[in-house]
Amino acid sequence: MLTFFSIIFVFGVLVIIHELGHFLAAKWMGVRVEKFSIGFPPTIFTKKIGETNFSIGAIPLGGFVKMSGFVDESMDDNITGAEYEFNSKPIWRRIVIISGGVIMNLILAVIILAYLNFSQGEQILPYTTVGVVGENGIAQKIGFQIDDKILSINGVPVHSWNEVQEQFVNNLNSDITFKILRNGKEKILTYKKEWFSDEKGEYLDIDPLIPAKVGMVQSDMPASKLGLQKADEIVSLDGHTIKRWQEMTEIIRSHPGQEISIAWIRGQDTLKGLIVPDIVEEKTAKDSVVAIGKIGIGYYYDHKQVGAGRAFVAGIENTYNLILLNAKGLWWVISGVKSAKEVVGGPIMIAKMAGEAAAAGWAQLLYLIAALSAILAFFNILPIPALDGGHLVFLIIEAIIGRPIPLKVKIKVQQIGMAILLALIIFIFYVDIKRLLL
């Protein structure tokens, strides 16, 4: 039920914000709006307010704003030349209207990300030593070993795991050099550009060496009931000395519902007790279900408070980086470097992510909405007929040639655009389904 409502909420917010952008821009520019619809027909609810019919469609995969005198997906060519029609307005006004949806999506992304930065602050993992190396992955190809300390990436010094991830992502699809410290000696490891085209070649499958220091303590879980607190450091579990988060996690996961001994340090004191990890079902990579143990703690972060001004700037930067990453992803698919299965995600994938984000908490759900809003803005501005970017191309051409494009040409191009869009939607659904089945 949580997944269902989260899906409706995420899709609803994205569609309403986008179409509201067109609606408000049209009203501001003096264009009559005949219909504002959330979802596509068949219509399940409609109400006329003023000159506009507001409706809800049964297919919740989008929405539309129908403006007088505007040739859109409905192929309505009823243009009379009335002053309140879209085509009767100067080109700059029409550009504002067409851009309204994208602008609103960008504003939504920036506001949410700025709020998350302000409310949560900056969470920094102050470690650059490798604690986990994935099996048969890119990290093994590069030559990483446990206890390697990463000093710099492509010559840029790194002081936290956040910076390690950032530098790796920024240099994807190119050779990447890692300067590391191993057994007291500096060494150079190299990620080769050609590995990027491998499946999961964009994932640096290493995790940092994290001490078993408690960060978040989840209420109503075994750790909270025992009395564990933030900054406590676990030093023993089930009779085993613990020095790493990964060691602690392995023992807890392997004892679901079983009582084990635990010892932790708080300040100068060593405390001891018994704890029974909750039994939690988890899906494996092959979608089988296994029972694991969890006690409800997260690892320790350095926390840096972010002021309102810096949070707003960070919101803009985060939005830009999301768009840039998606632009790179699109180019990787077009150029054949990566497969669509690895990069493309559609409604089914979004629905799955919405359910997982809702289960993880409100912050993750808000971040998902912000990320999808930025992505929606990017894809809508692409110069594809039937999308906002396609309509902007028409307007730019009109501005250059100094006269309107013939109506028959507009309709024909729209029809081609709708066919391309339909084929793209079918392809994305195919990729989504194939990803879920494999």
What does the model show?
By secondary structure, the chain is an alpha+beta fold. Among the domains are: 2-15 and 64-116 and 371-437, no CATH class; 130-208, Pdz3 Domain (Roll); 214-299, PDZ domain (Pdz3 Domain, Roll). Helices cover 45% and strands 24% of the residues. The protein has a 4-stranded antiparallel sheet with strand order 6-5-7-8. The longest helix is centred in the C-terminal third of the chain and has 31 residues, at 407-437. It starts with a helix and ends with a helix. The model has no long low-confidence stretch (mean pLDDT 84).
Secondary structure tally: strands: 18
What number is the mean pLDDT?
84
- Give the terminus-to-terminus CA distance: 25 Å
Characterize the biggest β-sheet.
Answer: 4 strands, antiparallel
- Note the total helix count: 12
The strands making up the biggest β-sheet line up spatially as 6-5-7-8
Strand content: 15-25%
Please identify the structural class as seen in this structure.
Answer: alpha+beta
Percent of residues in helices comes to 40-55%
Radius of gyration: 26 Å
What form results from the Cα inertia axes? Answer: elongated
Low-confidence stretches: none
Order of helices and strands: HEEHEEHEEHEEEEHEEHEEEEEEHHHHHH
